[in-house]
Design goal:
alpha/beta; globular; 15% strand; Rossmann fold; eight-stranded mixed β-sheet; 12 helices; two-stranded antiparallel ribbon; 329 residues
Length: 329
Amino acid sequence: MPEQIRASVGVERLQQKRSFAPLSKEPAKILAFVNQKGGTGKTTIAQNLAACFGLYHDKRVLCVDLDPQGNLGQGLVQNQIDTPKTADRLLVVPKANVNEYIITVRPNIDLIHNRFQKELHDAVDRLPFQSDLLRKQLGPALMRYDYIIVDTPSGLCRSTQIGIEAANQVILIVSCGTYGLKEMIAVIDWMLGNCNRFIKPMPSVRVALNKYDERRRYDRDFKLELERIFGDELLQTHIRTSVRIIEAAAQGISVVEHNHAYAAAEDFKWLSREILGLPLERDISDGSLNGNWSHELEEDVVFETMPPINRSATNREQVALGAQKHHAA
């Protein structure tokens, strides 16, 4: 049985114990959320998508926090999570029983929490390369969920590499700004180097734009630059800047639980549909997928140009080619 904790959804409540979900016919699809730079909203997007998958789409979700800061769990649970069975420990303990690490936080949503323990985290950094380490440690849990959401630390460290190795799809989170673009290209180049080193294919990559404000000329031009570089790999739904997201996380809940009518909540619900491959029924030709904002005149923005990715190549080849061309430029 998974451990039980207090979870807050509007008011604090103690959830009922439940048995593990029945086995699926296919293993869970693993999504890894990645960025080298902190503060891009990577963890917030992972939290809110987990809530949307579980509460709106009836998907069974396991959240795995590979970041020793433990923010993924803190954004889903109001009270402190006090368990020694952390994600770092799961990675370094041979033949660990994954069932002992799983905590139920919502209907359909479970968590493997993490927190900083220096010796354990140092041990993770020293782990030799072992193909599909996270998948092996999750073991039978892969068959009990539809999706596994992996939050990786900021920075190009061993924990991030482990999350990427396990992923069916890597979702790169970028917030508006020139530095965000350069950091994202650095992550892609690092991924390409690791794949070449260990003779592994590049995972599928999608790009999600966060902290977007349609009223700012800078943000609109930034989005156009991302579209030029990544084409269809840029998710059409962008997460708007909103203080409601911060307020919800402070209460240990997602913004879609805080108030589903908030604009930011709508963004996450539509982003979840897009990632699940469901129809986006609103018209996106005029930007209405993320609402209508009146444009204010602002200064032009000039970005350092980067070569677009070859649209005739596959997703994995596109990302690799984009990184190689950027280095050669």
